[in-house]
Amino acid sequence: METGTGKTYVYIRTIFELNEKYGFRKFIIVVPSIAIREGVLKSIEITLEHFRDLYNNVPFTYFVYDSKRVSQLRSYAAGNDLQIMIINIDAFNKKENNIIHDTRDQMAATRRLNRIASRLSPRRL
After folding, report:
1. Are the C-beta atoms of residues 26 and 83 closer than 8 Å to each other?
2. For residue 125, is it within any domain?
3. Cα separation of 28 and 50, whole Å?
4. pLDDT value for 38
């Protein structure tokens, strides 16, 4: 689809709607390229105040996945606020030397991907 049609705005707003209506807190935006990743990041930065106003200042964090910043991934998995991780498909797909698929002692011998998945269920009503 062509640029400038509002696709990014729609899925970011959908994230906030899913959080408000169903309590979903963890979201991963997977993009096909670094250029699109940077565009998504810029869109979130530009619309930050808009979404805070629209959704009653809901606390949320967002970040670009970086395998060298394990602490961000740990915070993402353990946090209770609305959280958005932006990741390239290449970083997600690479199995070899990819920290998101790796098992580490610091994470209680679980793959980071499994730990994130275990936190994806919405809050209990």
Report:
1. yes
2. no
3. 21
4. 95
Tally of domains within the chain: 1
1 found inside a domain: no
Rounded Cα distance between 41 and 62, Å, is: 8
Whether the pTM exceeds 0.90: the reply is: no
In the chain, the percentage of residues whose pLDDT exceeds 70 is 74
Nearest to 28, CA basis, from 65, 75, 67, 69: 65
Model pLDDT for residues 3-58, shown as the tens digit of each residue: 778 999 999 999 999 999 999 999 999 999 999 999 999 999 999 999 999 999 99
Distance CA 87, CA 32 (A): 9
Q: Domain range spanning residue 23?
A: 7-118
Q: Rounded CA gap, 84 and 29, in Å?
A: 7
Tokens of 95: 């199995």
C-alpha separations of 112 from 10, 14, 17, 28 in Å: 28, 25, 26, 13
